Amino acid sequence: MEPIIIVLIILVVLVFIALMKTVQVIPQASAAIVERFGRYTRTLNAGLNIVVPFIDSIRNRIDLREQVVPFPPQPVITQDNLVVNIDTVIYYQVTDARAATYEVASYIQAIEQLTVTTLRNIIGGMDLERTLTSREEINAALRGVLDEATGKWGIRVNRVELKAIEPPTSIQDSMEKQMRADRDKRAAILTAEGIRQSQILTAEGEKQSAILRAEGEARAAALRAEGEAQAIRTVFESIHAGDPDQKLLSYQYLQMLPKIAEGDANKLWIVPSEIGDALKGLSGAIGNFGPMGGGGGGGSTPITKTPGPRREQPPID
Fold this sequence. Notes:
By secondary structure, this protein is an alpha+beta fold. It is built from eight helices and eight strands.
């Protein structure tokens, strides 16, 4: 009885193992290569698949998603004989699992070596300055070469990126000095432009201020002259309205003479020629009054009147 039980247990175990090998579950975005007696039979896609146990075997499981592979820095010589270290990142995707399995032994290593050789060929035709400023051009050229070469391997290169371009330390120091000098130059130019613009604006402001000040002074002088003219006109009209005679004008003229001589700076007093006429008019006015006090009588003499309108003359001091 016991040997039969042992045989049954062995048969159950074998059946279970056969079922496990018969049913193959492939995850999404994956593929599996099936070989029968060492020869490629078919490719298993995502889902539930049935294979012949102990005859069919799974050679390789391949991830069909897009992969990102960074490569270590590679020394590359530029056209002007400078060594730069370049880090690259490759974005690729397996499109044919069979070709990726049988056409190349290790497609990752093959892509890396192809990237290095292609990068050295591209950078070798550029100088350092162009290398630092032409990343898009280098990426496009590198991607074109890689995509064409890896197509027969069942690989599609979607994108190539230069992660870093590191020139030698001495070149970096020289570049930093040059950049610092350029920044100082631009700063000096901007400062000079600012000072120049400030001086121009200041001069324009002073010019406008002088123009406005001159216009204000001209208007003030015009208004002042107009006021003085109006005052003279008013005085002239008032004098003509009062109808003064020659005697009153002569008396007023003599009263203005002391005011003309006022001031400490007046060292010389020039007597105008019109003073003779004024004195004649004034003497004529005094002669008309006659003697103010005659003999011992002490009586007063009436003021001499002239024909015409009655007008009293002011007393003479």
